[in-house]
Write a structure and sequence with these properties.
Bound molecules: glutathione
Radius of gyration: 28 Å
Largest sheet: 4 strands, mixed
Number of strands: 4
Oligomer: single chain
Order of helices and strands: HEHEHEEHHHHHHH
């Protein structure tokens, strides 16, 4: 059996504590004295550059792409952009992404190496990097952001595409009037119907999702706001008269996000100016 340690007498314990107390300020001073040396060492070290771990494949004139390009900049994520104009149907691209859609990210850890769909990309990166500001984890708040994005992709965007793609020169979806060999009159009627249908979902975003707040995300833009503002950019190609709130909203997004918004927006706006100049 191990021998029990003999307890030190109380008086010894007391004086040891007092000595320790006395020594404490001296210790702290010694620590402080070491600090500047440490700081000097740290200052000598070159700042570690963030190595891009995400490759973002884009088509610059597209608002689906603008969405993720704005988001990645606003969130200050380390990413590198690859312009894949003309190569989305190449065997190499199709090997990674059989849907041939951009935006697409490639990153280690993704089950298939690649991920497309703008909203899914923003959700994934927000989850991964804990970007609470853009995509709150509170289930009720998050549900509103998700609902706004699904509503946009499922309802607003098809109207935007049918209204603007003929002018933008983008291929329309199979089965739609604009995608097939119909008379110009029929195509124009279909386009007009889509333009007329835009007003309702736009009003829903304003009255329901924003409900008196500047953004869907409240005081700050969320990923749903990035998706909505980018989408509205396309409507300039048909001179759509946006309601005043929407014009103010785009300006507020640009003000809040600065160059993160303005830089990708310039590519979309540049393309729109180009197609308009060709049509004039
Ligand atoms: N719902 C998708 C739409 C993506 C999409 O339509 N991408 C188009 C550009 S606007 C594309 O990459 N097309 C190239 C192709 O199909 O080859 C999203 O939000 O990301």
């Amino acid at each position: 059996m191990a021998k029990a340690k003999k307890a030190a007498p109380k008086s010894v314990k007391k004086s040891a504590k007092a000595a320790a107390r006395k020594a404490a300020p001296a210790k702290a001073a010694a620590k402080k004295a070491v600090k500047p040396a440490k700081a000097a060492k740290a200052a000598k070290k070159p700042a570690k550059a963030k190595i891009p771990s995400i490759t973002l494949s884009v088509l610059k004139p597209s608002v689906n792409n603008m969405t993720v390009r704005v988001f990645a900049r606003a969130a200050k994520l380390p990413f590198e952009e690859a312009d894949v104009y003309g190569s989305t149907r190449s065997p190499e691209f199709l090997g990674k992404n059989p849907a041939h859609l951009t935006p697409m990210i490639e990153e280690k850890g993704l089950p298939r190496g690649a991920l497309w769909e703008s909203c899914a990309i923003m959700q994934y990166l927000s989850n991964k990097h804990g970007l609470e500001k853009f995509y709150p984890s509170n289930p009720a708040k998050r549900a509103m952001i998700d609902s706004a994005m699904f509503y946009l992709i499922g309802t607003l965007y098809p109207y935007v595409a049918r209204a603007t793609y003929p002018m933008l020169g983008f291929a329309q979806y199979a089965g739609e009037v604009g995608a097939h060999d119909f008379d110009a009159e029929v195509k124009s009627a279909a386009q007009k119907a889509a333009i007329a249908a835009l007003a309702e979902p736009l009003d829903v975003f304003h009255t329901f999702y924003m409900a008196g707040q500047p953004f869907i995300g409240g005081k700050n833009p969320s990923i749903a706001d990035i998706r909505l503002a980018s989408t509205l950019e396309f409507l300039n190609v048909i001179d759509y008269r946006l309601p005043a709130w929407a014009t103010d909203y785009i300006a507020a997004m640009e003000k809040k996000l600065g160059s993160a918004y303005a830089e990708p927006a310039a590519d979309v706006r540049g393309y729109i100016s180009y197609v308009r100049s060709k049509a004039a």
